[in-house]
Write a structure and sequence with these properties.
mainly alpha; elongated; Arc Repressor Mutant, subunit A; Tetracycline Repressor, domain 2; 71% helix; 214 residues
Length: 214
């Protein structure tokens, strides 16, 4: 399929902005410089983005893969589904640029409150939504207690993943290990195992049979 000129211009600006944000820092990468490097006029750029922060937000979503549709995970295995969501990473093609631009993003977010809030919401909403769906489905299938508070469970699962990003080297677990480990511990604490369900069902049946008939 042939891409439209508008689509081509959009992608050129994203790539140019990404390179300049990583090379010069966010504050120093001006819209003039982005226009010059991309070969796209400033007027066209402002037709696509309201301002530099809007462009920066899309650039960050772009390198984190947040602009791509995420599939619904449903293997039937609660641990595996949770671990899959908790170990999702940005596309490998952006590994080097990701390492260079994220420190600048963190610094920028700390001094630009509205942007920081918008960025955190965009980053955290996809995994929160995915985990919420997985937990709700597990409750419906009898794999988790009906009284489980889903909204309280989400930070319990995401907390370890955020911790290891904020304090790298503080744990023997790696970024790839922490997701499965968090899923395992959560299920160990809350999941209703099939064996336990069978035992409880048997006990209820025996109790019912042992009741004296009136």
């Amino acid at each position: 399929m042939v891409r439209s000129r508008s689509t081509q211009a959009h992608e050129k600006v994203l790539r140019a902005a990404l390179d300049l944000f990583a090379e010069r820092g966010i504050e120093a990468a001006s819209m003039d410089a982005i226009a010059h490097q991309s070969g796209v006029s400033k007027a066209t750029i402002y037709n696509h983005w309201e301002d530099k922060e809007a462009l920066l937000l899309e650039v960050m979503c772009y390198i984190h893969g947040l602009d791509r549709q995420r599939e619904d995970v449903d293997t039937g295995d609660l641990r595996r589904d949770l671990a899959t969501v908790l170990t999702r990473r940005h596309p490998e093609e952006f590994d080097e640029l990701h390492q260079r631009i994220v420190p600048a993003l963190i610094a920028y977010s700390a001094t630009h409150d509205e942007f920081g809030k918008a960025w955190r919401n965009r980053v955290m909403d996809p995994p929160r939504t995915a985990i919420r769906t997985i937990l709700r489905r597990a409750i419906e299938r009898g794999l988790l207690p009906r009284k489980l508070n889903i909204e309280h469970s989400i930070p319990l699962l995401l907390g370890p993943v955020l911790y290891i990003h904020i304090f790298p080297g503080e744990s023997h677990l790696t970024k790839d290990d922490i997701g499965p480990a968090a899923a395992e511990e959560f299920c160990r604490a809350f999941a209703i195992e099939k064996a336990a369900l069978a035992v409880n069902k048997k006990k209820r049946a025996e109790k019912k049979q042992s009741k004296p008939k009136r």
